Model the fold of this input.
Amino acid sequence: MDAKKALLDRFKSQPGPGHPEYEARKKEREAVIAARAERDPDIAELQRSFAQERRKATRIAIERAIARGEIGPDVDVQV
Done:
């Protein structure tokens, strides 16, 4: 059990969204992916497909939240 707790504590101690270190590493990863997509059409298609699926899942979640009355109907579902 101590190993699980140590691993969880290590995970929790990592910088998360909004932290400058996290944001800098995220920006670096995005730049690498963009550069690879420019050179490789397969990577570009994979990136496009991945982004499209994520947007679709987000749109569905927002539409469901609107239907349940959890958020207002004026929210833009085309994220």
Summary: The longest helix spans residues 41-67. The CA atoms of residues 15 and 21 lie 7 Å apart.
